[in-house]
Design brief:
Blueprint lengths: L5 E7 L13 H20 L4 E6 L2 E3 L8 E11 L3 E10 L5 E12 L27
């Protein structure tokens, strides 16, 4: 997809992750992507209250088998007033073959009242200064 994609999360495909065909179950893969994308959104928006709003077409390109090492890549592509849009790719960590691509995922920043809230950011960060620190 994009050479700027950040591949931070790696997974080992285990027996419990397989479908009836003996390959990686798509539902498990989508759960992993959504979880990683929420964490990425929390770090980009500096708020622990982020929800999945939209996921575009999911394109399965190849499969993964038991024992494969896969990695999930994400790239922020846009900031709305209360949202973050990103792209996702999953690939085999060893061969770099794409397993899945998602062109558009949208996450919404939520305020304490449970409603969309402005986040105040317009650029991607790789620093840890946006990590929300809970009040103690």
């Amino acid at each position: 997809m994009n050479s700027d994609m950040n591949f931070y999360t790696r997974k080992w495909v285990r027996p419990e992750d397989l479908n009836a065909n003996g390959t990686l179950f798509g539902g498990s893969l989508l759960r992993w992507i959504d979880e990683e994308a929420v964490v990425y959104s929390v770090l980009q928006l500096g708020n622990g209250r982020v929800v999945t709003k939209y996921i575009s077409e999911i394109n399965f390109l190849s499969s993964a088998a038991q024992g494969d090492l896969i990695e999930i890549g994400l790239l922020a592509t846009g900031f709305g007033t209360s949202s973050l849009t990103m792209r996702a790719e999953v690939r085999n960590m060893i061969t770099r073959q794409s397993i899945l691509t998602i062109d558009r995922m949208v996450f919404v920043n939520i305020g304490a009242d449970g409603l969309p809230a402005a986040h105040g950011y317009s650029s991607i960060t790789y620093a840890r200064d946006r990590i929300p620190i809970p009040a103690r």
